[in-house]
């Protein structure tokens, strides 16, 4: 039995997409950031930091998106990973983890543009700096799959690029990469199941202008 606790547009989209790529049967539990359910004791038992994704997989509980997609590939779809000792293993691991280099900038930008609602709480310097650093980090993405063939490293990276387009204009290779991700039927099925947008309600969040510019 597989159960996924998910919030629309969040990192749990990676797991949703992976489950669709693998054609597995699962139960989707739609959650919200705004109803305190992620802080309830039953959810904290699944995810000690009170976050999503949380996954129950045959009695096992997991709550790290990168680890989950890798484990799902290892246990249910070896074609979506590069095994130890195989050519391309280093790029595979690099891609899986580089997704979180992108993710760190996205988390800061999301915090500043969306979570911190009052203008005085936000740092315009951080907003500009993080957008610049995200744009630079995206230069390493695409146009082809991370290892040449589609793997869960592309699920981790593709999700990050999908969110990144809300904050920066994508470099051409990253834009082509995102198009390939979005063309995948499993991506489209996951998107259809994603639920009502609750984080990113605008298509783009521009960076604040520099004073005097
Ligand atoms: N490293 C974790 C991060 C999980 C995470 O921070 N999830 C966010 C959504 S993208 C969350 O649940 N935030 C709710 C909160 O911080 O209260 C992963 O990749 O799964």
Summarize the structure.
With 213 residues, the chain is α+β, with helices and mostly antiparallel strands. Helices cover 48% and strands 8% of the residues. A hairpin with a 2-residue loop joins strand 3 and strand 4.
What key attributes describe this structure?
single chain, 8 helices, 8% strand, globular, Glutathione S-transferase Yfyf (Class Pi), Chain A, domain 2, binds glutathione, 48% helix, Glutaredoxin, 2 domains, 213 residues, alpha+beta
Write structural notes for this entry.
The protein is of the alpha+beta class. It has 2 domains: 2-80, Glutaredoxin (3-Layer(aba) Sandwich), CATH 3.40.30; 89-184, Glutathione S-transferase Yfyf (Class Pi), Chain A, domain 2, CATH 1.20.1050. 48% of the residues lie in helices and 8% in strands. The chain is built from 8 helices and 4 strands. The protein has helices at residues 12-22, 41-46, 65-76, 89-115, 124-137, 152-164, 172-182, 185-193; strands spanning 2-6, 27-30, 54-57, 60-62. A 4-stranded mixed beta sheet has the order 2-1-3-4, with helices on one face. Strand 3 and strand 4 form a beta hairpin. Helix 3 (65-76) runs antiparallel to helix 6 (152-164). The mean pLDDT is 96. The structure holds glutathione. Glutathione (GSH) binds at residues 10-11, 33, 38, 50-53, 64-66.
